[in-house]
User: Which sequence fits this backbone?
């Protein structure tokens, strides 16, 4: 057998092994390393009504952050427990796809922490995207369902394993094992985040000590002597190093010398600063409720080099940032994110003849109300029309339900998730014209029913023909900067 035929034989063997595991073909490596010019942080904000969803923030220096989408969620889970925490963004080795993994959990529903730990979801929530702005619908993947007595699947992360040719996916599950019921880190493997191998134990601390919130970072050039560094919450924020993913891990220290243990902080984020040998370790100050705190180092393997950044050196933006992840992004990706969910000004649509009332959504119905709470239910992004992006045509995208638009159906209005169809686009597009009751205000003519306009009737939104003075007033609005 020639050298070439040996390689083909090994490749065939690898393919056979992957098929036997139920996995798909390996992704091709990136043609060239991308140059990262900025950063993206995915996070949640807390146990408020919308806090357990996916939020994005961007930064050009990795320290000063700007919230996207007016500090409202950019993605919402409509599967499982209808809430998500601890998001992690994973870039494919080819750089052409992103996966967003999150804990399927919504404490705001009132279920309580004991039930969440011991009788919670054993699935993860997964989205995927090719450009960071257009994401698939969320899906549940039951990674921990085969673990005996599993009560949860928390804080999922994934890293590409070049030695195995697939992703190592790992998370924390609380379950009884060897007579001890506690949190351990488990792992599975996948190539597509749809089909996973059976869960296997990964990290188990001695005795009754549990472990959660593990994150692994590959270190280019093995600075400090290790190819991989991982941080975990196990009573401390413990730092470990290894040159392979599944074994050989050495404990390097923790951050207790900085006055921080697992009693004060959790949810460590590891990332490299763009274009230099400097790394960040962000820790969530959950005990004090102050959100993330950045530590930096030029050698993550030496915990004595970690330093806490002064409050004057960083800014976290308007939203409260809880357990998440940070990745480097290109200038083009940064520009697309800002264009899609820029931090510009949201609009409120004020009734012309009931000036204390604003167009809002409530349980996905559309109406005008006073004293809207939460305010974001009455905030809109007026985006170029979905069916006609020419000047003067607009669609109303919800700020706190991104991807949902005001749409008419049978002349009634509702807040509906965009489905990409031509019919949806036409139903959700309007021509902005001079106000029918006052030319200094605005009215909105239907794109596909041009004899009808958006108006309110008994405080509900309708699409009606307009002829009387009352109807003209009902179909007139003012756009207010919120």
Assistant:
């Amino acid at each position: 057998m020639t050298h070439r035929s040996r390689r083909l034989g090994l490749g065939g063997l690898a393919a056979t092994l992957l098929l036997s595991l139920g996995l798909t073909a390996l992704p091709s490596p990136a043609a060239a390393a991308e140059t990262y010019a900025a950063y993206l942080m995915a996070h949640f904000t807390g146990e408020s009504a919308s806090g357990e969803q996916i939020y994005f923030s961007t930064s050009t220096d990795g320290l000063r952050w700007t919230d996207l989408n007016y500090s409202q969620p950019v993605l919402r889970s409509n599967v499982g427990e209808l809430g998500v925490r601890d998001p992690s963004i994973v870039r494919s080795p080819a750089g052409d796809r992103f996966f967003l993994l999150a804990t399927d959990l919504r404490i705001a529903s009132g279920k309580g922490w004991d039930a969440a730990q011991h009788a919670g979801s054993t699935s993860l929530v997964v989205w995927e995207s090719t450009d960071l702005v257009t994401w698939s619908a969320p899906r549940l993947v039951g990674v921990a369902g085969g673990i005996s007595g599993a009560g949860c699947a928390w804080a999922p992360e994934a890293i590409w394993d070049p030695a195995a040719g697939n992703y190592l996916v790992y998370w924390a599950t609380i379950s009884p094992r060897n007579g001890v019921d506690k949190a351990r880190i488990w792992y599975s493997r996948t190539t597509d985040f749809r089909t996973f191998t059976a869960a296997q134990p990964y990290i188990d601390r001695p005795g009754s000590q549990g472990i959660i919130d593990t994150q692994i970072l590959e270190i280019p050039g093995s600075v400090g002597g290790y190819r991989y560094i991982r941080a975990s919450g196990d009573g401390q924020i413990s730092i470990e190093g290894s040159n392979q993913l599944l074994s050989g891990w050495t404990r390097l220290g923790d951050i207790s010398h900085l006055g921080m243990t697992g009693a004060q902080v959790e949810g460590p984020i590891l990332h490299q600063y763009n274009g230099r040998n400097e790394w960040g370790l962000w820790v969530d100050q959950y005990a004090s409720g102050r959100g993330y705190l950045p530590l930096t180092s030029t050698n993550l393997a030496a915990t004595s080099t970690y330093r806490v950044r002064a409050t004057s050196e960083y800014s976290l933006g308007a939203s409260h940032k809880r357990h998440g992840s940070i990745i480097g992004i290109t200038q083009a990706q940064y520009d697309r994110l800002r264009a899609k969910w820029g931090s510009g000004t949201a609009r409120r649509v004020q009734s012309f003849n009931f000036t204390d009332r604003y167009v809002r959504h409530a349980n996905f119905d559309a109406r005008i109300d006073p004293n809207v709470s939460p305010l974001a239910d009455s905030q809109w992004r007026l985006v170029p029309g979905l069916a006609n992006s020419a000047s003067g045509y607009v669609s109303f995208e919800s700020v706190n339900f991104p991807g949902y638009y005001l749409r008419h159906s049978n002349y009634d209005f509702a807040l509906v998730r965009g489905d990409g169809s031509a019919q949806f686009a036409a139903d959700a597009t309007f021509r902005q014209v001079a106000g029918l009751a006052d030319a200094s205000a605005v009215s909105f003519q239907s794109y596909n029913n041009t004899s009808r306009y958006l108006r309110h009737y008994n405080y509900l939104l309708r699409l009606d023909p307009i002829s009387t003075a009352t109807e003209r007033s009902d179909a007139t609005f003012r756009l207010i900067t919120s």
Notes: Helices lie at 3-20, 113-118, 331-341, 422-427, 469-474. The first strand starts at residue 38 and ends at 44. The CA atoms of residues 278 and 298 lie 4 Å apart.
